[in-house]
């Protein structure tokens, strides 16, 4: 009786593996998008800082975008002065059969699963300036996007990271003042693993945004601003053990922070980091492998049945 039960269980398992040999809807997908608009640096009285408010001002805007698929990379980078008329703008990067997104498209992709191909994708855009430059009013806009996708019955890994960083030093004029950071942020992250995805499958997405101001003489921090809504709260994940479609989309939110007192004639450095990260992996056995496994188990079941008889 015990042998018969074992044979029945093995036959059932073999049958289930035989069904699994038919390709299932197996997918992993991760997306990370951060749109920052009207980013400004303001005086205590609410007006925007301008180039003329500093006795010295020097620094760069840096941008990069990296897409990866199975250790194949596509990279782009650009660096411009913070007072340049044109901000850095890296073309979108793609490795694999990418979803057909237009350049500078920072809107989420809908659907379950949203795509059925395997790729890594990254894009970046930066326009405007955080301070008034000449007659141009203050107001910078920065967007980053990273997507990673694996499709049906694939053994693949997609990884993307993209970001902008701004670092500049300035020397205050003849008066003390504070500096208010003000902007609207719209974060979006998504991690999807379908029930058909195989073992060792996962999807992860997160954002990272921070601003630091330090006194270049004392090296003391004057402002360290990294809101949770653009950092830890944005981290989402799903795995083969717990298939899910996890979305973080709180909508557009106003962010602001005020520095400590900036002393007249002292030099400070501002560093702004803005990054999107997405990673998706999947390891699904090939249909042929599953068929062989099923046939082998069915053979074992038949042998045990004959012995039991």
TrEMBL record:
Sections of the chain in a coiled coil: none
Q: Does the keyword RNA-binding apply?
A: no
Q: Where is the signal peptide?
A: 1-26
Sequence ranges assigned to domain Ice-binding protein C-terminal in this UniProt record: 284-305
Superkingdom of this entry's organism? Answer: Bacteria
The alphabetical list of record keywords is:
Signal
Q: Does the keyword Oxidoreductase apply?
A: no
Read off the NCBIfam families from this record.
PEP_CTERM, PEP_EDSA_1
- Kindly provide the name given to this protein in its UniProt entry: PEP-CTERM protein-sorting domain-containing protein
The record lists the lineage as:
Bacteria, Pseudomonadati, Pseudomonadota, Betaproteobacteria, Burkholderiales
């Amino acid at each position: 009786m015990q042998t018969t039960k074992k044979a029945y269980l093995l036959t059932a398992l073999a049958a289930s593996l035989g069904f699994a040999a038919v390709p299932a809807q197996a997918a992993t997908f991760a997306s990370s998008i951060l749109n920052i608009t009207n980013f400004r640096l303001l005086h205590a009285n609410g007006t925007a800082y301008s180039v003329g408010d500093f006795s010295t001002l020097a620094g760069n805007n840096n941008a990069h975008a990296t897409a990866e698929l199975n250790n194949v990379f596509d990279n782009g980078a650009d660096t411009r002065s913070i007072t340049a008329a044109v901000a850095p703008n890296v073309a979108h990067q793609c490795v694999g059969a990418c979803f057909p997104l237009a350049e500078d498209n920072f809107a989420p992709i809908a659907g379950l699963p949203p795509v059925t191909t395997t790729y890594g994708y990254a894009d970046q855009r930066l326009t405007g300036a955080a301070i008034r430059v000449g007659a141009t009013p203050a107001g910078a806009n920065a967007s980053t996007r990273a997507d990673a996708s694996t499709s049906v019955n694939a053994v693949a890994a997609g990884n993307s990271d993209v970001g902008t960083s701004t670092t500049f030093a300035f020397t205050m004029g003849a008066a003390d003042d504070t500096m208010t950071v003000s902007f609207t942020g719209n974060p979006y992250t998504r991690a999807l693993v379908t029930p058909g995805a195989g073992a060792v499958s996962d999807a992860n997405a997160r954002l990272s945004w921070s601003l630091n101001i330090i006194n270049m003489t004392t090296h003391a921090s004057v402002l360290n601003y990294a809101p949770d809504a653009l950092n830890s709260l944005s981290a989402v994940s799903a795995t083969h053990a717990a298939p899910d479609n996890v979305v973080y989309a709180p909508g557009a939110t106003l962010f602001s922070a005020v520095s400590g007192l900036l002393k007249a004639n002292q030099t400070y450095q501002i560093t702004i980091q803005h990054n999107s990260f997405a990673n998706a992996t999947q390891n699904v056995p090939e249909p042929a492998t599953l068929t062989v496994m099923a046939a082998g188990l069915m053979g074992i079941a038949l042998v045990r049945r004959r012995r039991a008889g």
